[in-house]
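Hey,

The postdoc asked me to send both predictions to you directly instead of through the lab channel. I've kept everything plain text so nothing gets mangled by the mail client. Protein one:
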Amino acid sequence: MKQFIERRKEWLNALRVGWFLALRQVKRSNKGTTALIIFIMVLTFLNLVVVSGLLLGLISGSFEQYRKSYSGEVIVTSAQGRNYIENSQALINYIAHHPQVTSYSARYGVNVQLLGTLNDNPKKNERPNRVSGRLVGIDPISEEATTNFSKYIKYGENLDPNEEGYILIGATLLKKYSTYADANIPGFDFLDNVDVGSRVRVTIPDSDNGGIVKDFIVKGIVKSKVDEVSTRMFILDKELRRLLPVNKEQYQEIAIRTDYANAPALAAAIKGFMGSYAARVQTSDEAIPSFLRDIEKTMGVLGNALSSIALVVAAITIFIVVFINAITKRKFIGIMKGIGIKPLAVELSYVFQAIFYGFAGSAVGLILTFGLLKPYFSANPIDFPFSDGILVVTPWSAGIRVAILIIVTILAGFIPAKLIVRKNTLDSILGR
């Protein structure tokens, strides 16, 4: 017990002396050198947090757009092997009166063929100006409340609930507006010479009558980075319901807006209400395509790899700074050892200096990240072809990276100090 108390006093004394020596060295060091070291630590911290955050933000931006422009927080679709959501009308009534539901959009949907040229027949050996796609019937008012649909109409106007005979077409289907039009992808067809004001012909396959045909006027072009929006066609729900050959009262999709945190509970409640009726109920996170999840994991691994390089650079920087500092003061270190200051206290003084640089750089980095960079990228996302990139960083993830940086900094400060301090005291004083 006595040994433990003496060892504890020795450690406490070494900590006090080490702190005193570190404080004096930092105060008396060159201000420009200190600022440069802190600046390097700030860049290291930003590399740890911001680079990986932006890589993850590329995919997280896709997730956010998927939720905002298509699925809502909860999406109900037809079960596998079914063409519609069973008991749709009762489900709509349940959703409309549920206290956690902010808004919802019920959609009809059917696969169709769209003919873009009504007057000119294709020449011999020439493909007709026709594409296949998904025709969706929407209520413009509820769709606007749920997904802010008009935001994605880049050309023309939105559908009017009181006007029939108009259609909106996704930009990906049109040669003039599609970003893939010049790629010459086999089997990927585009409508040519179709724009706002053009007349197109929709054919709904029907095995009994050969097909239901109706002409529409293009009222707008829908452009989004979410395929479920930019590869579809949209008309009024009441108009499509009349065209459907069967199951006219059954919906194919219901997007529901609620608080993000309430989505799992709401999805579970809807599943309980549906009972034996067939439907697929998912939160937006569950409905995200699996390939995007795979890309998210890949981006995470890439971000961690880049962060590791930044940590190595920071460790080398601190190692060099402390090593050079200790070498230039080797005679002073020898004198301190000679007058009775414990080697541990000297080593701790350099460790405290390294911690100071690490904390100072991290503090400035945190201010820049949460006070400047994250708000900036939220207001001005990076425009990528498949998403609007944002900066994904949380206090928890940033705190973990600060801890890692401090640990690496402590090791980088302790090792060179240990190498210098352990040299013979007389040799250090005489400079041998």
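Protein two:
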Amino acid sequence: MASVRGFRGFRFVAEKVGALDAVLTPPYDVITPAERQELIARSPCNMARLLLPVEKDGLDKYQAAAADLNAWVKAGVLEQDAQESLYLLEQAFTSPEGRRHTRRGFFAVTKLPEDDESVVLGHERTFDGPVEDRLKLTEATQANLGAIFVLYADPDGQLSDRLAPHYEREPDVQASTIDGTTQRMWRVPEVPCVPEFFLDKRLYIADGHHRFETARYHRDRMRAAERPGALRPYDFVLMGFVAFEDPGLVICPPHRLLDMPDGFDGKRFLGALDPWFDVRAAGNDLPKQVETAPGCAFGVAIDGAGNHLITLRDIDRTDLLGNCRGAAWRDLDVAVLHRGIIERILGLPESTQFTYIRDAEQALGAVASGEKGLAFLLRAVRADQVRACAEACEPMPPKSTYFFPKLPSGAVIHRLV
């Protein structure tokens, strides 16, 4: 089903830029303004200059990014590999709970599906603003500057076993990125087992839903303009592939911080939970209690009313959530939080704005300091739930997953011309 193949990637030349730590970055959408400033100070060729460009020399920000990219290629800072290749990736990192992990994957390009094909499935809604922004950047640079992070099923280790020997030599690229991840990459000639393996596979977007929609819009525009008689580079998009079964696949829960709602009363709120939830007072060990509680459980910290563990009783979830969404969606703890607690019990709109944070202790600290009124602590969504929602075409609530680490931007670039 999926058409996956190698490509002639553009990569930074270490002799021109020095240590690659200075040029590789996480994806654009997780770089804060302060981090952008730190990153661009590292090198005049840091990827943040392309991913999050600014106006300069009379050019708008998208034209400025294109000018930088073209200048880097012309100066030999970026060079294109001579043959079609796959780019194997190994990421060593510490998860937020302090455990060391290693995750393996690879970069390749995938043919963008046609409108009647369900080859690439997502679990998030997309919004016009981010797509329009990335589309303007793609049209200006004619490049996939960052990869879409996708998952695939390899329960028997068929593909991972075939690729494993390639990781045994010294890597072609090694760098540490701002998120504390050690990135190691190997360029290998395209091997037939990879395209063959994916012929009967679906791909599931972990990160990059907006980049995927952007790539499809760009392809459609280019087809309409050129009316080509054969496949062109813009028919393919850069993806980073990781197996569902990889032991280093880590999904973090984005906890929710909320300003105190008007008229909120902590005791009344806790009482209103009673028909569906068991509520127990908790101390500073609330994050651990959430992780170890059976069933569907949340932590809530309330400014002035302490910490509490909330556990969903053994009920028919349609009683709380309704039946307008499917079973895969109702199975999510985050759906219970949003539809059941935030919207139904608190009476807040679906559009309620949260601050999202991965560190549970920081979330509790924000309430203890009075910076925020409420913190909701969640457990991580499981990979099988991501797959189930994608296959059921049931978008999750916003920011339901945080895959960590992200794929590095700038490790390899796919140009569309």
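Summary for protein two, as requested: The radius of gyration is 23 Å.

Thanks,
C.
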